[in-house]
Amino acid sequence: MDKQDKDILKLSKLLKHWADHNNSHKESFIKWRDVAKNKGLDSIVDNLNKAIEMMEKCNEYLLEANKKLE
User: What angle do CA 66, 58, 17 make, to 5 degrees?
Assistant: First the structure.
């Protein structure tokens, strides 16, 4: 395997890793969004919902990029 192939393999692994890592953050956002909701912190809930949506969009881009490598 030449260096270019190794770089592509590494990039593929990183894209998957980043998406998985983002999912763990998203789970934490959801947990704390629910805490904020129970405390009546509506503006915080709105911000966390936006962050969750952005994390999901970020993962879409990462996984789409990974598919293009295949």
Answer: 50
User: What CA dihedral angle connects 49, 52, 53 and 56, to 10 degrees?
Assistant: -170
CA–CA separation, 49 vs 7, rounded Å? 35
Sequence ranges of the domains in the chain: 19-69
| Secondary structure class of 1 (helix, strand, coil) | coil
Tally DSSP H helices, then E strands, for the chain.
Answer: 2, 0
Residue-wise pLDDT for 9-37, tens only, equals 999 999 999 999 999 999 999 999 999 99
Distance from CA of residue 63 to its chain's centroid?
10
